[in-house]
Design a protein that fits this description.
Layout (H helix, E strand, L loop, with lengths): L1 E7 L5 H14 L6 E7 L5 E4 L3 H6 L7 E6 L7 E6 L2 E6 L2 E4 L10 H9 L2 E2 L4 H8 L1 H10 L7 E5 L6 H8 L4 E5 L9 E3 L5 H9 L4 E6 L3 E10 L4 E9 L7 H5 L5 E3 L6 H17 L4 E10 L5 E7 L9 H8 L4 H11 L1
Parallel strand pairs: 1-2, 1-7, 7-8
Antiparallel strand pairs: 2-3, 3-4, 4-5, 5-6, 9-12, 10-11, 10-12, 13-14, 13-16, 14-15, 16-17
Length: 343
């Protein structure tokens, strides 16, 4: 099978994408596939590369010999044009695996390119990818499906002068501030008092044009991996115990100090309820292939709240999604096979 793996991209999660792609390449059953590696720079240039997983992980792939690549929107081409020393040549592709996070990769843009090219791809479609990326829109669909979400408000850039008054009217401190359409906890802040709010909102606006201000919940963080199309299944649950104030970017991808408890210490009834809610959330946005669904469980009241859905979850060696399926009896390599089969 001709498989193209996309990684990198223009989002703030470029480095995470490179780490995830390297992990996929190290764990895939390579004998089953003819793999075309396509790296996208931070400036948005596409290249075919023969870099090793370690060179991709470190970002060194950009300094190595590479050839310009273009995904043809012509559905009859069904692949990539590669511009080498001897001129352009067409590489046919059966499936594209976009191992990309954030803007221009997880938000429906690449998925739309794949649709134009007439090539099957791993993961959610255009609409579900776009909705899953926009936390405010996803929360509206979750609420419509009867799923509990955190209380909060959304602020657009031209509404900055209403931040203090709207927050004062709707929420009490502390609150949580985050971009509506960024991932990996980029631009996320815990705000203890009103004096800290405006600077946190400005920080979040540096990542997106819309910001969410939500109630802060002193909660356990529970995650569930969903796999499948129409008959999607939920994995064993995991719990994140962050060493930092919350599970931020460094805790997720750099320092590795946070503890991952798999399975999460929950009663059978609680676990069953969260797994059922995860599948409902996946279907609420029209999910396909895979997603990770994140929950809060209030430490005092036991209330369970759906936090967000990630339509292309992290695939690094320490990421929760592959670990949850490994704990459920599906190896990393077999999980990749399954995702490609679902595509």
């Amino acid at each position: 099978m001709q498989l193209a793996i996309l990684f990198g991209g223009k989002s703030g999660e470029y480095a995470v994408s490179c780490i995830s792609a390297a992990s996929v390449l190290e764990n895939i059953h390579a004998e089953k596939y003819s793999i075309l590696k396509i790296g996208i720079t931070k400036d948005g240039e596409w290249f075919k590369t023969d870099a090793s997983p370690e060179e991709i992980r470190s970002g060194a792939w950009e300094t190595l010999p590479r050839e310009k690549a273009i995904l043809s929107p012509d559905a009859l081409d069904h692949g990539f044009w590669i511009f080498g020393e001897n001129g352009p040549s067409l590489f046919s592709v059966d499936v594209i695996f976009p191992v990309m996070h954030g803007d221009f990769g997880e938000d429906g843009c690449v998925q739309g390119l794949c649709e134009l090219a007439g090539i099957r791809y791993v993961g959610c479609g255009v609409a579900s990818s776009a909705v899953g990326m926009d936390k405010e829109m996803a929360k509206k669909l979750f609420s419509a499906a009867g799923l509990p979400v955190a209380k909060g408000i959304a602020i657009e850039k031209d509404e900055k002068d209403t931040v203090l008054s709207r927050t004062r009217a709707s929420l009490s401190y502390p609150v949580f501030v985050k971009p509506s359409s960024a991932g990996s906890s980029l631009g996320a802040y815990k705000v203890m008092c009103e004096a800290e709010l405006l600077s946190a909102v400005e920080g979040a606006f540096s990542h997106d044009d819309k910001v969410l201000i939500e109630e802060y919940i002193d909660a356990r963080e529970i995650e569930c991996a969903v796999l499948g199309n129409e008959n999607a299944k939920a994995s064993t649950l995991g719990e994140i115990v962050p060493e930092a104030e919350f599970y931020d970017y460094d805790a997720k991808y750099i320092d590795g100090t946070s503890k991952l408890l798999i399975p999460a210490p929950l009663s059978e009834e609680e676990a069953a309820e969260i797994r059922e809610m995860a599948v409902r959330a996946f279907h609420a946005i029209g999910g396909e292939g895979f997603s990770r669904v994140d929950f809060f469980k209030d430490k005092k009241t036991g209330r369970i709240v759906l936090n967000e859905i990630n339509t292309i979850p992290g695939f690094t060696e320490i990421s929760m999604y592959p670990k949850l399926w490994q704990a459920s009896g599906l190896s990393y390599g077999d999980l990749i096979d399954r995702l490609i089969s679902l595509a």
